[in-house]
Amino acid sequence: MSKQNLILKADDLSKRYEDGVLALDHLNLEVRAGEVYCLLGANCAGKTTAINLFLNFIPPTTGTCYINGIDVTKDPLEAKKYVAFVSENVMLYGNFTARQNLDFFAKLGGKTALSKDAYYQVMRRVSLQEKAFEQRVKTFSKGMRQKLGISIAIIKDAPAILLDEPTSGLDPKAAEEFLEILQELKSEGKAIFMSTHDIFRAKEIGDRVGIMKEGRLVLERTREELQFEDLIKIYIDYMKSEPLTA
Amino acid sequence: MIGTIVKKEIAANLLSYKFFIIILLITLLLFTSFFVLYKDYKGRQADYELVRAKPGEPIAVLAPNPLSIFAKGLDEAMTRSFEISPIGIDVRTGQKSGNAVFAFFPAPDFVYVVKVVLSLVALLFGFDQVSRERENGVLRLMLSNSVSRATVLAGKWLGNFLSLAVPFVLVTLIGFALMNLDPGLRFGSSGTGRFLLLVAIALIYIGLFLSLGIFVSALTRRSASTLVILLLIWTLLVFVLPNLGTLVARQIIDVPSVKALSEKRTQIWTSEILLQIGEQRAVNFRGDGAIRKRHLDAINAQLNALEADYRIKFDRLVRLAKTINRLSPAAGFVYAATELAGTGIDEESRLKSEVIRHKDAVLLEMDRGVKEHPAFVYRYRTVGRVLAEGGLFDLAWLTISLILFFALGFVAFVRYDVR
Amino acid sequence: MKTIIKRELLDHLQSIQFIVLLVFSITLFSANGIIFAKKFRQVDSTFQQRTAGSQPHPDTQIIFLFRQSNPYLFLAEGGDLDRPSAYFLMAKGYFSASSAFLSRDYKLPDIPKLDWSFIIKTIFSLYVILLGYAAVSGEKEEGTLRLVLSNPVGRVRFLAGKYIAILCAALVPLLAGCLVSSVILAIVLPQILTFDTVSRILFLLLLSAAYLSLFAFLSLLVSSLIRRSSIALLVLLAVWVVFIVLIPDISGILAQKLAKVPSDYQTAKNLGPFVQKEVWDKINGIQARIDRGELRTEEAVKAEAEKAYESGQEKLRFYEKNYEDSVAQRARLARDLSRLSPIALFQYAADDIALSGIHGEEEFLKNISSYSKIYDAYVMKKTGKLISQSNWMFSSSVKVDGKSIDLHSPQPEAYRGDMSDFPKFVERPARLSEAVRYALGDIAGLLVWNILLAGLAFSMFLRSDVR
Q1: Which of B103, B215, C339, C341 has the fewest beta carbons under 10 Å from its own?
Q2: Closest of A154, A222, A148, A206 to residue A185, by C-alpha
Q3: Can you give the residue ranges of every domain in chain C?
Q4: How far is it, in rounded angstroms, from Cα C191 to Cα B312?
Q5: Which of these, B310, B276, B312, B305, lies nearest to B293 by C-alpha position?
Q6: What domain count does chain B have?
Q7: Is there a contact between C62 and B274 if contact means CB atoms under 8 Å apart?
Q8: What domains sit in chain A, N to C, each tagged with a CATH number?
Q9: pTM metric for this prediction
Q10: A168, burial (CB in 10 Å: exposed 0-12, middle 13-18, buried 19+)
Q11: Shortest Cα distance, chain B CAs vs residue C17, angstroms
C-alpha cells in the first residue's frame, strides 16, 4: 500500500478530558484514497471524539491527526481544505432552500463559481426529489436532510470525507441509497471515514472495519478477513465482554 | 469568504419570522415616537408664537428646538418663558403634558427608543446567533471548512449589524425626510448635521449591544437558561447603572427637593406680604409705595439667596451624578445625544446662566428707568464645543466599549466548544 | 395533575433564572425598604415640625394645611412625592397648592420610584413571561409533550398544572422580597407595623397574584399558539411593551387631543383682559357714577368698591379653578383611556390601597373642602364677616368732591383674640374597605382579563396540534 494516497492518519492519538475521562487511548489508524473505513463502537466509545479531533474542534492530549499529510493542529485551515464533513442529524438553515444551503457551503468550501445547474446535478445524484430543490429545509424529513448533507460534502470535492453516524435514523431504503452514493464516491478515489452503529452496513461497505471499546481500537479487520469471520458475532462478543478498564 | 458569511447572515435574517416581527416593532415604535413628538413640537411652537417677546419686552424665551423631536432632553424646561420684573423672574410653561401625572416611562423620544428597545433587540439578536447555530449543528459544519473562527465571527457580526442597522437607519431617515416636508419645521444644515451625527452615535450604541450579545452567547451553552441572565444584564445596563450615579450623588450631597423649594418660596412670599399688609394698615395705606418696595426688595433678596444656595448644591449634585452615570453606555449615549441636540443638562445649565445674566442687566436698566429692553438672544453651543465639553468623552467611551465587547466576544468564540 | 405540578415546580426552582430572580428580588425589595423608610422619616419629621402636633396654626386670614406623611408609600408611591404637601386655605373655600403654575426649575432625570407596585408590575411580569413562554412550545420542540400526553392525563389538567407551577414559582421570590422589605421597614419604623399596614400588604399581594396570574395565562396562550419558543417569547415581549409603554403614552396623547386645556401662556395672556373687565372696568364705573352724582358719600363709594372687588376676586378664583379643573379632567381622561392596559389597572388599584396617586390627592382635597365650611363658620363667628380672596390684591383711588379716596380690595380681619377653640383639621384617610371599594372597578378589570385569557389559553391548547 503506497504512502502517496494516505489521506487520513491518526498517529498515537489520545484524548483525556478535564474531568479525567480517557476518551481515546492511543488510536492509530489510516485511511487511503479509494478506501472506506468504518469505525464501530457503542456510544461513548470514542468515535465522535476521533472525528472531533480530526476537525480540530478539540486539541489532542497526545498524538497527531493528519489530513493529506498536514497536521491539523499546526495548520487547521489548510488541512480543512482537504476534508468534507457530514454531521449526524444536522438541522442546516431551516429558512433556506436546499439549493441555498448547498450554495452557502459550496462557497465556504472554496467553490465559488458554480451554477444553479451544478447544484441541481449534485442533488439529483443523491436522489433528492426535484421538487425539494427549492423547498425550505425545515420541511425536510431526516432522510432528505442527510441526502442534502452528503451533497454538500460531494460538492466540496475534497479528497477525504468524514461521516458521523450517517445512517442513524434512516429507513432501510434510504440507508441503502446512501451507501450506493458512498460506493460511487469511493470509486472516484475519495478516502471515506465513517463512524457508525450499523454493523450490517459496515460489513457491506467497509474495506476496513475497526471496533472501538472505551477509547481503544480493539480490533481491525479487512474485507477479505471478514469473509471468513462473523463480524456480527465478534462485535457483540466485544460489547458483552468485561470492561477494559475493570 | 467573509462576504459569503455576511450575505448568508443577512439572507437568513430576511427569511425569518422573528426578524420580521422585530423590524415591525421597531418601525412602529419609531414612527409613533416621531409622530408624537412632532405634534408636541408643533404645539410648543404655537405656544411660542403666543408668548415671544415683542421688541422691548423684558421676556426671555427660547423657541422650541426642532431636534428635541429626537432627543427631548430638557427642551421643555429650556423653552419656558422667563418674564423679568422687579418682583423676580416669572416662569411660565406652555401646554402641560397630560402625561405628567401618569406616565410609567418618560416621553418615548428617538433617544429613548434606541436606548431601551434597540439595545434589547441587538442584545437578543447577538445572543441568538451563536448559541442557536451551535445547538442545531450548523456551526460545526461551517467550521469544518477552511475558514477561521475570526472570519466566522466577523462575518456574523457584520451580517447581523447590517440586518439591524439598515432598516433602522432607513426608518429614521424616512421619518426625518417626512418631517422636513413641513415648511414650519426648519432643521437647517446645522440641525441636519447634528441629526446625522446622532444617528451615527445610535449605531455605535446598537453595535455595542450586538457585540455584548454575541459575547454572552459564546460563553454559554444552553440558550434557554442564559436568556434570563441576558435580560438581567440588560436591565442593569439600561435602567440601573445609568441611575446609580444619581442615587449615590443624592446620598452624598443633600439637596432640598423641588417641592420643598417651591413651598419655601411660597412661604417667603406669603409671610412678607402679610407683614407688608400689616404695615400698610398701620399707615392706613397711605404712601404705601415705599413700604411695598421695601418688602419686595426683602422678598427678592431672600429668594435670590435661596436660589443661589440651591443652585450651587444642585450643580454639584448633577456634576457628581453625571460623572458616575456616564460610565454606563446607556447614560453616555443619552448624554452625548442630548448635548448634541442642544437639550442636554450642560446646555440647560448654560441657558439658565444666560437668563440670570440677562435678568441682572434688565433689572439694572429698569432701575435706571429704561422702558425698552434689548431682546434676549441665546446661541446654542457649536458641535465643536459640545464635543470638547464632554461629548467626545462619551463618544470615545461608547466606541471603546464596543471594541472591548467585540474583542471579548472574539476571544470567547475562539475558545468556544462547538460540539 | 399533582405530578405535573411537582415536576414543573422542581424544574423552575432548579433553574438559573429562579436563583437570579430570587437574588434580584431580594435586592430590589431591600432597596425599597431602605429608601422608603428614610423618605418617610424625612417627610414625617417635616410634617411634625410644621404642625407641632396639631394643625392648623390659628389664623383668620389664611391658614396652611399639610398633608400627613403616608406610611404606605412603599407599596405604591403613586407620584405623591412630587405632589404638593402644603395647601393654603382662605375664607369662602378658596384653597390651592403652592402655585397653580408649579415651577420646576430644576430637573434631574426621572428615576422610576422603586415601590412594590413598580417591582411587581415590571420585573415580576417579565419573569412570569420567561417562565411561561416555552410551557407548551418548548415541550413540543423537545418532543416531551407527546410523551406526557400519551399518558392518562387530560389536556386541561396538563395546562392547569403548568399554570399553578408558574404562579407558585413566581410567588416564592415575591413573598421572599416582600418579607425582606417588611422586616426592614419594621426595624426602622416600628410604628407603622399595625394591623392596618399588614392587611394592606396582604391585599396588595392578592392583587399581585391576580396580576401575575393573567400574565401566566397570556404566556400559556401564546405558547400554545406559536410553535417556536423563541418567536413566542418575542411576541410576549412585544405585548408587554405595548401594555407598559405604548398604551399609557398613547392615552396621554389622546387625552391631550380630546380634552383641550388652554396652555399656561394662553391663560396668562388672557388674565390681563379678564382682570380689566371684571375689576378695573367696574372701578372706573364707580368713578363715572360719582361724577354723575349717583354716589356721594365716602361710605357709599367704599361699599360699592368692596362689592366690585369681591365679585372680581370671586371671578378670578373661578378663572383659576377652571384651569385647574380642566387639567385634572384631562389627567382623569388619560387615566381612563390607559385602563385598556392591565398594568394600569393594577397600578391604580395599588395606588388606592396605598392611599396615594391621583385618587389619594382628590380625597385630601375633599377633606379640605369639608373643613373649609367649618373654618368659614369659625371666621364668621370671630370676625363677623367672610371675604372672598384670590391670589390678587387690588388698590386704586377715586375722587369724590375733589378729595382722593383710596380703595383697596377687602382683607379679612386678623382676629387677635382668644383662638383656643380654633377647629382642628383632621385628615381622615380612607380605610382599607373604602379603598377597596374605590378600586373595585380596577380589580374587576383584572379578574375579567384573567377569565378571558384563561378561557382563550385553554381553548387554544385543547385544539392545538401537539405533534
Answers
A1: C339
A2: A154
A3: 2-103+111-261+333-368+423-462
A4: 37
A5: B276
A6: 1
A7: yes
A8: 6-96+155-240 (3.40.50.300)
A9: 0.79
A10: middle
A11: 5
